[in-house]
Amino acid sequence: MIARRCSRTACTRPAVMTLTYVYADQTAVLGPLAIHAEPHAYDLCSEHSERLSAPRGWEVLRLSTVPAEPEPTNDDLLALADAVREAGRVPSAPAPTPEPGLAGVRESRRHGHLRVLTTD
């Protein structure tokens, strides 16, 4: 897996946080590293995410105080092994089909018209 790099010019450190702007609310949202690189979001390293400032009159909404580790942990590997084992078992009844793209996602809080979605 190729780690994403910080979006700041000349920075080669690995990205650990994702920054997005909500222009209608004059809000900069800094949260955990997004699963996929988004064209209108900025991936930042730990140093640049800590030094982030917003234009005058804007609010910075920080969704995580501790940047995520860029490397997989043993827990990730164990969870992957459990998922593979579970997928190999024959289900007793067909599972209900969740809405595409929303399986395991729930709304945890709101900020203006923004929704914070978390995965189970």
Question: Would you kindly provide a written description of the structure presented here, covering whatever features stand out?
Answer:
The protein is built from 2 helices and 6 strands; from the N terminus they run E-E-E-H-E-H-E-E. It has one domain (1-86). The protein starts with 16 loop residues before the first strand and ends with a strand. The protein has helices at 46-50, 74-88; strands at 17-22, 27-32, 42-44, 59-62, 105-111, 114-119. It is an alpha+beta fold and 120 residues long. The relative contact order is 0.18. The chain is globular, with a radius of gyration of 18 Å. The model has no long low-confidence stretch (mean pLDDT 80).
**Structural class, please?**
alpha+beta
Fraction in beta strands: 25-35%
Write down the overall mean pLDDT: 80
Rg calc: 18 Å
Main β-sheet, in a few words?
4 strands, mixed
SSE ordering: EEEHEHEE
Span between termini: 23 Å
Q: How many β-strand runs?
A: 6
Name the strands of the widest sheet in spatial order.
3-1-2-4
User: How helical, in percent, are the residues?
Assistant: 10-25%
Could you say which overall geometry the principal axes of the C-alpha atoms support? globular
Number of helices: 2
Low-confidence stretches: none
